[in-house]
Amino acid sequence: MPRFLFAFALVFCVVNVPVRSEDQKTTAPGHYLFAWTGDVASKGNDFLAVIDADPAAPSYRHLVTTVATDQPTMYVHHTEYTMPASGMLFANDHDAGRTFIFDVRDPLHPKVETSFTDMAGYMHPHSFLRLPNGHVLATFQHAHHGRSEGSMGTSALPASKRTSPSHNWCTPFLVTGAGFPPSWGIT
Amino acid sequence: MIQSVPATHGLIVLDITNGVKPVEVSRLKFRDTYKPHWTGWDAKTQRVVVTGKGTRLFMVKLDQATGALSMDNTFHDAEGKTGFNFEEREWPHGWKGSGLPHGVVFSR
Q: Which of A3, A92, A141, B54 is most open to solvent, judged by the fewest CB atoms within 10 Å of its CB?
């Protein structure tokens, strides 16, 4: 069976983070890196590390703080590529099938705002792209099956392929407004 | 366009002004054991943050006029080694161990 039939993922969902829009600009001073981090040994939990990225700051290149999640590391993966104006940052653990939204408006005191799992039968989130209206284009790479169950995506993708940083085996299709809690304002 | 290339252990910059004929304008190699993956651009300081298969995060400078890449050696760890070391730390949230960074984004 053609590989694309297995690896059909990339489900596009439009997400609107509740209450906070792109009009609510973050004005925190300083310049920081937010590094979405897992445990190499996969025994600890995923966490967000904040590093001072302001070359003029006394604490430049130093770790500022961290905020831990309750997610044991499986495969800590993508964040958004640029910081959204809302300061509500998406980050996922791909294999756990879970996405976190961090409130990083105050970089020195980041918080886990919420998290979500699969959407409309799809899981394993991969990439996020913030749209001009503040919504998020999210991609999911598999149907709602465990990788070890021989389901779509699984049987076509050996582990070595799956974990390769250069993999690119997704075929997109569009789903909108599926599965999000009403309070999240998904359109 | 900046592209991480794990096979060459580095980054490649392509001039895609002519999309029909992209041209490589520069490349930067990390150490032989490092396979870069994630890149994140910082317009404020004209730098690229890089993570990959390893416990170290690197900062790379980009000359937007020429496309030239160079390692930002001012971004180093306590031992003077370039990059940020995620290896065997006591993290502020109370956990001790080695972190593996992946997605990284700059503040605005």
A: A3
